[in-house]
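We modelled the chain as a single entity of 166 amino acids. Its sequence is:
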Amino acid sequence: MCKHKKFKTTEQGFSGPVGPHRRQNRLAHGGVCYRDVCLTCGSERLTNVNGCSSERSGWGPSGEVREAAEAAEAAASVAAAAKRKADTLRSAAEREAEALEAEARRLLAAVPTMRAPDGHWAKLDEKGNFISSVGAPVAALPIEFFEVAEVAVRAVLAAEAARARV
């Protein structure tokens, strides 16, 4: 532990109270401020002097160290706020993607598997792809099948686009 025996003193104009709030000497305000910097450890102490009145701070980190610590703390606070905002936006985007995926699944389930009397069939798979038995005549499918399928496929594409944004 440094005893601060050797220090360098510089004089500057008054810049504000230096003592703890309950020990401030208002009569010492307005004159000069002496900045003592320990030559051993780099700590500093401020002393306000105005006529016969004085007010002294305790030894502590130098102004440069204190300012650097405050700047680092402010940067960390900004980074934490940005991360919270990004997490909020991401979770909102994830919720939107999940809702669109659920709607796409519901619409795909509503698309019936079409069966022809000759045994051919046609349907949409879980990804919205049109699949049919070999040789199934697509032209024989009713237009309603394609209308319902189109809505379901558009829902699947919207869900995929939302998931890609996450």
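As a brief sanity check on the tokenised model: Residues 16 and 29 are 7 Å apart (CA to CA). The chain has two helices and seven strands.
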